[in-house]
Each structure stands twice: as C-alpha cells, then as structure tokens.
Amino acid sequence: MPLKVLKEETAESLMLEWVLHVKNYKLTVNKNKCVGCQICTLACPKEAVTLEKHPKIQGEKAQKARVDIDLTKCNFCGICDVSCPYGAINVTVDGKHLLSVLEKQSFPQLVRDIKADAHKFPLDREKSEVVCPLKLIKVSFLTADGKTVDPSSLSESERQRLNVKVDVDKEHCPCCGICEVKLPNGAMYVHKFLSGKLSINTTKCPEGCTDCLDVCPITGALYLSDSNSKVHVNEMFCVYCGACKAVCPVDDALELKRTHINHTPVRSGAWNKALERLTSSTEMSKELKTKGSLKARESVRKRVGLKGEENA
After folding, report:
1. Based on CB atoms within 10 Å of each CB, which residue in 50, 55, 152, 240 is the most buried?
2. What are the CA-CA distances from residue 288 to residues 83, 297, 300 (Å)?
3. Average pLDDT, stretch 128-154?
C-alpha cells in the first residue's frame, strides 16, 4: 500500500501521485494539451478517468470537457498515457517515463506515421509553422556553417543556399493531416492512426448550436455551413478523438464510430477490451480474425519450409 497519496489540481495541470517505500508513481495531465476527448475514458480498464461537461453560459463559446481521475481507482498502469492522441498525459516511475503496460507488452503503442521532407518546405517560417493547428511544427533555416538565420533578410541567391531543418513534435501530434494538405506536395506525409466515421444529424442538431465546433482542436475538421447555418464535418482532417461528442447537448445529434487503430503488434486481453470500448465488438472481432489468419499463414509457411528442407 502507498505510504502517501496526493492529488493536486491547478489551472495548468492535474497531478496524482503514489509514494511507496521504494517507488514513486506520478500521473500528470497537461490541461493546455488536453482537449477533453473521450479516448482516455474509454481506454482506462479501471474506469478511473471521467469527463465532466462545463455548464454552458449563454452568449459564450462552449468549453472543452474537464478530465478527472479517481485516485482510488487509478493504478498508474499508463494506458491513458499510451492512448492519448495529443500526448497530454504523462505517467512516470521515479521520475522516468516508464510504462508497465509497454514493458509487459500488454498494450500496444499508437503508430504515428509522420514524415517530413525538409527540402520541399517553403523558405517562409511563418507560412510553414502556421499550418499546424496545434503548433507542433518548428522550422529553422541554417547556413552552411550551421548558423540559424532569418531568410527574409537574405537575397534570393542566399536563401536558395540555406539548409532547412524541420522538427515535428510527434509525441503530441494527433495526425490530422492538415500539414500534408496545406504545405507543398511531398513536404509532409501523415498517416492517421485513428480511422472512423463522424456524422451530424442536422435534424437533431439544435438550431444555432456550435458547441462541437467551439471545442474541436483541429481547425477545419468541423465548419459552419453558409447554406443552413449548421455544423458540418470535414473528415479529411477529423482525428475521431470525440472532443465534439463529449460536449454535444443532444445524444443522437452527433454520431462517432472509430473503425481502426494503427498500432504496434500485441497479443493482450487488456488491449482487446480497450479496442472494443474504443471502436466496437465488431471491429475487435475483425482484428482478432486478422491475427488468427496471420498466425495460421505463418504456421503453414513454417511447415512448408520445414518440408522443403527435409526433401532437400
């Protein structure tokens, strides 16, 4: 049992801590990065994470849902840390980012397949960085001797000799793909790790309500239509996190289905249960069938290989 338990909340963070004889466990939620989505609440096997709607104030924009964690239920397993699309949750053991579910291989890592080709970035820092709605792209321009310079102060010939350095904060990137679309062709490649379907039932969507649009962290994933003044979805940029669903005042007005999660290989009952909650029992069954087919194929391949060796 812990010698000491702590839970502290500020405007910037929520912190939980276990102090044991030989170890110190700490979980921190960065409120600036947390968007109030549904992922951690669904992934948590202990149902320790909950979302709370803020009361709507007439005439003001909706606020993102508030995340809370029950210290009596949380065991610092790190599943919420692994699952967060925005990297807003950090679990440490003795100050180190060590997650038992990854060490034990009982939970997979989300695959954030993001590539940047610095040679294809425009020589305009502001234009390059502003495309990311979460400000996760940083661009530097270097001379041949490694000095950082502002290209706007250089001649065209000097600018063409610059080296471009691109840093993408992949840990906090939900893979919306806006950078891939808005930057020059080939400058960025982003493969979504969450796939699905988001739709809005305009007959049930309340007249004049923009709560989902107010809290959506991805600029352009939701937009207000000029034709009917209702919120519509641009699925090209949607990351299916559920921040919109968490604040929608009408249960059936917004339908969200996650159909696939791109992750590292894993065989785990904990992951199967999380996958079912995050997607559906149907999608979980599909993944299990796929794994079974791959296992059977590998078994046949080995048998055929062994038989071939015997005949040789």
Report:
1. 240
2. 20, 14, 18
3. 92
pTM, two decimals, is: 0.86
Residue 228 pLDDT grade (very low, low, confident, very high; cuts 50, 70, 90) = confident
CA distance 72 to 68: 12
User: CA of 188: how far to CAs of 125, 192, 219, in Å?
Assistant: 15, 13, 18
Amino acid (1-letter code) at residue 1: M
**CB burial of residue 64 (10 Å; 0-12, 13-18, 19+):** buried
User: Is 108 among the domain residues?
Assistant: no
HSE-up of residue 15 (Cα within 13 Å, Cβ side): 13
pLDDT in tens, 195-221: 999 999 989 998 889 999 999 999 999
> Strand pairing of 89-93 and 4-9?
unpaired
Residue from 280, 253, 167 nearest 244 by CA: 253
**Both tokens assigned to 91:** 């679990």
d(CA 138, CA 254): 34
Give the strand pairing for 113-116 and 4-9: unpaired
If asked whether residues 31 and 84 sit together in one domain, one would say: yes
